[in-house]
Amino acid sequence: MYRKHYKRFIDITASGITLILLFPIFILVIILIKIDSKGPALFTQKRVGKQGKEFKIYKFRTMLTFEDSFYPDGSPIENYDRITAVGNILRKTSIDELPQLINIFIGNMSIVGPRPTLLYQVEKYDDSQARRLNVKPGLTGLAQVNGRNSLSWEQKIQYDIEYVDNITFLNDLKIILKTFVVVFKSEKIEFVAHDEISKHARDVREDVNNS
Fold it and tell me: Residue 89: is its pLDDT beyond 70?
């Protein structure tokens, strides 16, 4: 009952109220991003959602635009150096993810669920791993509160499958509460490569024109 009906009700109610309450913060963040670097305040990218359906995810931009990501000699700037001063703060506090409340409100995402992935990752799934696409992707999830970037691609998917098999209100509530603990720790964001798919992901550039 919760999975089929109440979960969506909670998603749309919570995201709608939170968007209204955080509107002043959104405006402030947009202004700071625009002052700090050239380019749009929002970053959009195609991600894969429930049942393999693609959608456009929203985030606050935390890196230099693709056009500004090259040194004068034409060589590309490394990902670490592409993160802006404001972007570094947004990432550490996970504020960069807040625009996904829009995705939750319109129904592309849920508050809790597997993180939305890129198409090239989904194409590498086996039948078991593809089960993570049986539910809407989430703003936070079981993998995010059990290691986040320290986990390999396979470990994250295993946590996602575990979540898919055990969706209850209490489990979602536990994940949400643990998320606040993880965010307050303000762990350093790293581009970690534990396996082949993660290694490839490390080299994928954040292109604000990719929509």
Answer: yes
pLDDT tens string 98-145:
999 999 999 999 999 999 999 998 999 999 999 999 999 999 999 999
The reply to whether 132 falls in a domain is yes
Any domain includes 210: no
The pTM of the full predicted model, rounded to 2 decimals, is 0.85
Residue with tokens 């700037």: 77
Distances (CA, A) of 52 to 12, 19, 127, 129, 146: 22, 27, 13, 12, 25
Distance CA 29, CA 86 (A): 9
Residue 145 lies in a domain: yes
Domain span including residue 102 = 2-202
How many structural domains is the chain composed of? 1
Residue 37, CA distances (Å) to 77, 96, 168, 205 in order:
15, 15, 42, 17
Q: Is residue 209 part of a domain?
A: no
Do the strands 54-60 and 42-48 form a parallel or antiparallel pair, or are they unpaired?
Answer: antiparallel
